[in-house]
Amino acid sequence: MPANLPPEYFAAEERFRAAETTEEKIACLEELISTVPKHKGTDHLRADLRRKLAKLRESAAARKSGGRRESPYNISREGAAQIVVIGPANTGKSSLVRALTNAEPEVAEYPFTTRIPTPGMMPIDNVQVQLVDTPPLDYAFEEGPLISLIRRADLILLVIDLQADPIEQYEQMLARLEEHRIIPAQLRDEYPPESRLWFIPMLVLVNKTDDERHDEDFEVLCELLGEPQCPLIPISVEQNRNIERMKQAVFEHLGIIRVYSKPPGKEPDFSAPFVLKAGSTVEEFAGRVHRDFVEQLRSARVWGTGVYDGQMVGRDHVLHDGDIVELNA
Description:
Layout: H1 7-18, H2 22-34, H3 43-64, E1 82-86, H4 93-100, E2 118-124, E3 127-133, H5 143-151, E4 155-161, H6 166-179, E5 182-184, E6 198-200, E7 202-207, H7 212-225, E8 232-234, H8 243-254, E9 256-261, E10 274-277, H9 282-289, H10 291-296, E11 299-303, E12 311-313, E13 324-328
Parallel strand pairs: 1-3, 1-4, 4-7, 5-6, 7-8, 9-13
Antiparallel strand pairs: 2-3, 9-10, 11-12, 11-13
């Protein structure tokens, strides 16, 4: 049976080949495995990729236990996604992470306060995502490890300062990323499919948009930039302006959905959704609930988008954000 691999597989394979560190290779290989369709024609391929992944993880674990000091940039992914917050010095990155998470990065008026990355958890409705504060990208203290951290991110938040030449900051940061083959995912179609690049979704947070007068400055910025490469969101960490709008934009650009499990004869559990990639099917949801469900699943009912309440669906039914699923084995 032919494998019939999608274009996403070959793009991920190129990024895996271009990866420079073990951590990058692990992240790229995990992405590569997720792009392989699940059918008999891909059984050997998936098994081979899983063996490679196991060897890489063993190698990483052996280095950690070998007495070498662990790099502060090797941050374990927690929650539904890992989001890296980048930008020039004194744009408010640390203040943002401090305000939205349980982390306490140092915040000060002088530049280069942040010297190592600091992770924290940010809730978006009933989903937790990880924000990672980072040293200034324009004067990175450990550029290589920082770039590796950015490449492993599910989403990049670029923070610029509306009141301090935001156009120069914006263009400078995108140029620095491009130097390291990191491109906003919004520009994927402008590059050949075989390019060895990291395409990562990116949002630009225009901080210090503190009041209505600054709203006008933000509109001028948008006009001067014309068609920006990434969505721009005006925020003010100090005044707590547009923070919820920013959170919703983050959720949308992560490309994830929340699906709720309903045990037969019981009410659904809305406190702890299963977080899946957009476009996931009932079969993939069943595998997340319990691996035995994939083989033993007899039927499924769905309440939500595009179905009537409790509609019987097949394994290949595509789920949507907020769907409720009852599995019967």
